[in-house]
From TrEMBL:
<dbReference type="GO" id="GO:0008170">
    <property type="term" value="F:N-methyltransferase activity"/>
</dbReference>
<dbReference type="InterPro" id="IPR002052">
    <property type="entry name" value="DNA_methylase_N6_adenine_CS"/>
</dbReference>
<dbReference type="GO" id="GO:0003677">
    <property type="term" value="F:DNA binding"/>
</dbReference>
<keyword id="KW-0808">Transferase</keyword>
<feature type="domain" description="DNA methylase N-4/N-6">
    <location>
        <begin position="92"/>
        <end position="382"/>
    </location>
</feature>
<dbReference type="InterPro" id="IPR002295">
    <property type="entry name" value="N4/N6-MTase_EcoPI_Mod-like"/>
</dbReference>
<keyword id="KW-0949">S-adenosyl-L-methionine</keyword>
<keyword id="KW-0489">Methyltransferase</keyword>
<protein>
    <submittedName>
        <fullName>Site-specific DNA-methyltransferase</fullName>
    </submittedName>
</protein>
<comment type="similarity">
    <text>Belongs to the N(4)/N(6)-methyltransferase family.</text>
</comment>
<dbReference type="Pfam" id="PF01555">
    <property type="entry name" value="N6_N4_Mtase"/>
</dbReference>
<dbReference type="GO" id="GO:0032259">
    <property type="term" value="P:methylation"/>
</dbReference>
<dbReference type="InterPro" id="IPR002941">
    <property type="entry name" value="DNA_methylase_N4/N6"/>
</dbReference>
<dbReference type="InterPro" id="IPR029063">
    <property type="entry name" value="SAM-dependent_MTases_sf"/>
</dbReference>
Length: 507
């Protein structure tokens, strides 16, 4: 006889029925209290410290917010204080968090060691507090290693429902081998949940651009494109397809030998006027036609993200050292390309991105450069002062050179053979050099001609030049004190102007 399930799967732990309150500002130091304790329900004030850059506009200081303080307090206040609730309730399209991994290590910038029950309650409460801030089509991305990822998945299943699970992404964080370990760990995990479930959310998420073919070196407002040769076989051409073309730099090109231009001169002039002509070699090269991708050209994201696609831990370290110096590198920075992929898949320009474990500010920096609004919370005042505020200030001023500020694209020096991409030409040229060693059948003239026909170079394009702004705020102090003798919680006489506890919302 088949038995019917009597309840859903649930993760339990010591203290699950209790609440946590911060004991010391700026540290992961908490005390257990009853959930009805007014300190666990308190809505603390959010105090503005400064505004950086432009005030108004889609990425101005009125749109982007850095809060220094406990993330649980911050999330509760954002959803309750009217001026913030009006702006943020139901507005967050993407949550990406890189919480403490609980590795039992002590880093320079934070201690990554919490007792399991404290860690679970800490994460459970923040998942609950962030819920009202999410849009109906929001997605939640949680970055962890294998120490806590299995427990976090159960927490998220319990909070949102197991049917809201989308996937687990495996990120190759390094390629070097650790010979001291039983197994050399080379990956982290990113759990992805969507409030609408995977089958609905997949129609809202974006595909990845085919980076081997599409880029946007000239900042075309129509988006990424690729260039294709603008010549055709001469035998099928009309006389009107044979003419000289002068580049923007004054170089005159005739059609390649035994070929004609793809279009007549009037049609070419129309394409030129519509900014559909690309001039390689800094304007000296033969014209190429810009082709824009359709939805079918995009790539469905895969679940394994390799270092050469999105960067690894060493890239994050290099970006951090370039910003803050070799002697002041954040312990666990993530590379900007990793966050760029997350933000691209989950949001569109103008959407709101939230990260309430701010770290060195990578999520906010990437969101800002990509034209998204952002909201980030950082527990440590020291981290905010040392890393996040200076970094985001540099982003606003256009003085932050690393990460996704610029891109490098492989392009052809001359027109490549039909159907060959710049990446294929680069690989061919490299293999040609190896294959030619010891081969007498390839004379030097042939080798030279093959190398010239497939020569490529890197073309760097600046993608971010600065702009926008942000507000720096901090969480206000608690209104409550505790009597040392009997443990009674009472209102501090010097802090009676606070907002107090919020009403209980029930279960």
């Amino acid at each position: 006889m088949k038995r019917s399930p009597k309840g859903r799967l649930e993760l339990t732990w010591m203290g699950k029925d209790s609440a946590l309150i911060p004991v010391e500002d700026g540290k992961y130091d908490y005390a257990w209290v009853d959930p009805s304790d007014p300190r666990a329900l308190e809505v603390k004030s959010i105090e503005v410290v400064e505004q950086v850059g432009e005030i108004d506009g889609p990425t101005g200081a009125n749109e982007n917010l850095l809060i220094v303080g406990d993330s649980g307090d911050a999330l509760r206040s954002l959803g309750t204080i009217p001026e913030y609730a009006d702006k943020y309730l139901g507005q967050v399209k993407l949550v990406y968090i890189d919480p403490p991994f609980n590795t039992e290590e002590t880093f320079e910038n934070y201690a990554d060691q919490l007792e399991h029950s404290i860690w679970l309650t800490l994460m459970r409460d923040r998942i609950s507090e962030m819920g009202p801030l999410l849009t109906p089509d929001a997605s939640i991305w949680v970055h962890l290693d294998d120490g806590e990822v299995h427990r976090m998945r159960l927490l998220l299943d319990e909070a949102f429902g197991a049917d809201r699970f989308v996937t687990t992404i495996v990120w190759q964080k390094k390629t070097s081998r650790d010979n001291r370990a039983a197994f050399s760990s080379s990956q982290d995990y990113i759990l992805v949940y969507a409030l609408q479930g995977a089958q609905v959310w997949k129609h809202a998420r974006h595909r990845l651009p085919d980076m081997g073919r599409f880029a946007n070196p000239d900042h075309d407002p129509r988006g990424p494109w690729r260039s294709v040769p603008m010549s055709a076989q001469a035998g099928h051409a009309t006389q009107s397809q044979f003419y000289d073309i002068t580049t923007p730099t004054g170089v005159v090109h005739s059609p390649p030998p035994n070929r004609a231009w793809t279009y007549t001169k009037p049609r070419f002039e129309e394409l030129l006027a519509d900014d559909l002509i690309y001039w390689p070699r800094n304007g000296d090269g033969k014209p190429r036609l810009k082709k824009f991708p359709t939805e079918d050209d995009g790539l469905v994201p895969m679940t394994i993200w390799l270092t050469d696609e999105v960067g690894g831990n060493p890239d994050g370290k290099r970006e951090s050292s370039a910003l803050f110096g070799e002697d002041s590198v954040f312990d666990t920075p993530k590379p900007e390309r990793l966050l760029e992929r997350v933000v691209h898949i989950a949001t569109s320009p103008g959407d709101l991105v939230m990260d309430f474990f701010g770290g060195s500010g990578t999520t906010a920096a990437v969101a800002h450069k990509m034209g998204r609004r952002w909201l980030t919370v950082e527990l440590s005042q020291s981290n905010a002062d040392r890393f996040i505020t200076p970094r985001l200030t540099a982003v606003v001023r256009g003085e932050e050179p690393g990460g996704i500020t610029s891109t490098s694209e492989r392009v052809a020096v001359e027109e490549l053979p039909d159907g060959m991409t710049a990446q294929e030409a680069q690989k061919f040229n490299s293999l040609l050099t190896k294959a030619a060693k010891g081969m007498d059948m390839l004379d030097s003239a042939t080798l030279k001609a093959l190398r010239a026909a497939t020569k490529t170079c890197d073309e760097k394009t600046l993608l971010w030049e600065g702009g926008g702004g942000f507000t720096v705020s901090k969480m206000g102090p608690s209104m409550y004190e505790v009597d040392d003798e009997d443990g009674q919680v009472f209102l501090s006489p010097t802090r009676r102007t606070g907002l107090g506890p919020r009403p209980s919302l029930g279960s």
